[in-house]
């Protein structure tokens, strides 16, 4: 069973279905990919009794769901408590999709054994989801992804760069343009979720999704070259820019917490994932072609 219907959830469902697994996808809209082995159900995952009912008979519950970005501190505890209760009641294995916010600022590569030391509200919300699940006694693992890219990705790159580059327009970006940054492809993240679910030694700890590391300027340049678009024009959004944008949408206020420190690369160490789970990173150009 998969809770969520976004790009990673959909790719995970198709990977499982193509292996002959029966998949039930749960989301408020009842969306998801069409496949004979994928059943799509409209339900609210915070309705714990309904969620438990839908989970009965499953082997594994995957969750890729998240509340609206600006509502994480308020709504993540409700969602995660409902999911964890359903897992306890049904006795299924639990595979969570997380991200890297919980670590907070890190000097050097981000490894999965580092403490979850974030102090900001979104980082702490993410950290608590894992800490509570890990302490609950259920069979659980978490796959933590870097910034998403690829077909269907919802991220800074997809929102602020992709379309602007393809249309030859100026892209205003909320990250440093020439500092190395790790990106996780949607497909690689889904493959890691599936691999972790099937490996007994994966449970009880977290894993990092494979990632490719390059600057946003480099990534935008490769996208433009593959698409035959003009050379990208990029500018970095300042803190003042974000403060002004907060007046238009609460989303912008949330970016202050997750901006990397000036001049500090944001690099993910996913070597254990490749060594133990056998999942590696798809070449960047292949991921960008899929986006196109």
Describe the structure.
The protein has 292 residues and is of the alpha/beta class. The chain has a domain at 2-146 and 185-210 and 269-279: 3-Layer(aba) Sandwich (Rossmann fold). 40% of the residues lie in helices and 17% in strands. The protein has 12 helices and 12 strands. The protein has helices at 7-18, 48-55, 72-90, 121-134, 156-166, 186-197, 216-227, 239-245, 250-253, 255-258, 271-277, 284-291, and strands at 2-3, 23-27, 38-42, 60-63, 93-99, 140-145, 147-149, 170-173, 181-185, 206-208, 212-214, 233-236. Strands 3-2-1-4-5-6-10 form a 7-stranded parallel beta sheet, sandwiched between helices. It has a 3-stranded mixed beta sheet with strand order 7-9-11. Strands 8-12 form a two-stranded parallel sheet. Helix 3 links the parallel strand 4 (60-63) and strand 5 (93-99). Helix 1 packs across helix 6, helix 5 packs across helix 7 (216-227) and helix 7 crosses helix 12 (284-291).
Q: Can you describe this structure in just a few lines?
A:
The protein has a domain of 182 residues: NAD(P)-binding Rossmann-like Domain (Rossmann fold, 3-Layer(aba) Sandwich), CATH 3.40.50.720. The chain is 40% helix and 17% strand.
């Amino acid at each position: 069973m998969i809770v969520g219907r976004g790009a990673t959830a959909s790719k995970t469902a198709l990977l499982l279905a193509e292996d002959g697994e029966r998949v039930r996808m749960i989301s408020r809209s009842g969306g998801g990919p069409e496949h004979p082995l994928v059943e799509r159900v409209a339900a609210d995952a915070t309705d714990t009794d309904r969620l438990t009912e839908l989970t009965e008979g499953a082997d594994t519950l995957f969750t890729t769901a998240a509340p609206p970005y600006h509502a994480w501190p308020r709504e993540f505890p409700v969602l995660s408590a409902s999911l964890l209760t359903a897992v306890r009641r049904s006795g299924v294995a639990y595979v969570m999709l997380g991200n890297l916010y919980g670590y907070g600022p890190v000097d050097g590569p981000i490894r999965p054994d580092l403490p979850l030391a974030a102090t900001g509200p979104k980082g702490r919300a993410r950290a608590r989801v894992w800490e509570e699940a890990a302490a609950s006694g259920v069979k659980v693992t978490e796959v933590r992804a870097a910034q998403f890219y690829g077909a269907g990705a919802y991220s800074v790159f997809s929102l602020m760069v992709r379309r602007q580059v393809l249309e030859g327009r100026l892209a205003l970006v909320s990250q440093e343009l020439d500092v190395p940054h790790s990106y996780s492809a949607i497909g690689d993240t889904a493959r890691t979720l599936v691999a972790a679910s099937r490996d007994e030694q994966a449970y009880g700890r977290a894993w990092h999704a494979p990632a490719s590391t390059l600057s946003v300027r480099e990534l935008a340049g490769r996208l433009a070259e593959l698409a035959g678009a003009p050379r990208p024009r990029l500018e970095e959004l300042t803190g003042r820019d974000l403060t002004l944008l907060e007046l238009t949408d609460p989303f912008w206020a949330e970016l202050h917490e997750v901006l990397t420190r000036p001049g500090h690369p944001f690099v993910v160490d996913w070597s254990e994932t490749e060594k133990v789970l056998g999942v590696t990173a798809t070449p960047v150009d292949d991921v960008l072609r899929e986006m196109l």
